[in-house]
Design brief:
single chain, 262 residues, alpha+beta, YojJ-like (1, 2 domains, seven-stranded mixed β-sheet, 7 strands, elongated
Amino acid sequence: MADYLSIASGLWLKYLSQFADILLTAVIIYYILTLLKGTRAIAIFKGILILIFLTVVSKLLKLTTLSWLLSGAWVVGMVAIVIVFQPELRFLLAKLGSGKVAGFLFRIKPDWINAIIETMETAQKKGWGALIVIQLNMGMKNYTETGIKIDGDVSSELLLSIFNPSSPLHDGAVVLKGNRILAASCIMPLTMEEIASRILGTRHRAAIGISDVSDAWAVVLSEETSSISLARGGKLMRNISPEELRKELVDLYRVKEFESAK
């Protein structure tokens, strides 16, 4: 056994560690370039590559003056890059912190839960109405096609801009899938239950209706009473607080995590 471990250790130190080093470095560089694609940092990165090339060439050709100038440029340049590109660096670190690796290490709750809660709280204060449908396992293409395609990251700012009464999209439902907004101003099926039809508004009837014909959950904010309701399985939980809604959504997320892990 000790011989096998010794051989494996030798192979790792002599060959595999170098391969793993190169592979991980390449993956990290590719990931960083992917994140920075489309930003001004790409142009700076190209400039840095040119400086590296010139530095190597000046060393090889023994160009003393050019090497001295480039050495000074590297010292000043690194400080300047950190100062000038603070927004890009913050963006890069934020993306790294919100990625899959960070989510695995730190068990970050999905952004869409906070976005929904913040949207409900702000819209409540403003007296707006809202209907958010959370897609689960069943597809909702036939409903999202009735609205306007968004396909954007979930954020309270985007949701509030949609539910603003002056927005042409505010009347219908917003459909979410994970951390993405699929579409807005979508038409949902209304429940045909007689009592609900008599005492509830269109948003609440639509919330019950879509939760009845699919496994989706629907969050409703009443424009008249500013109360929050949650529809699931054709049933409506009325007048719940933002914290109660958060608890329900966190529980849903945990169930989804468990199902996906099986």
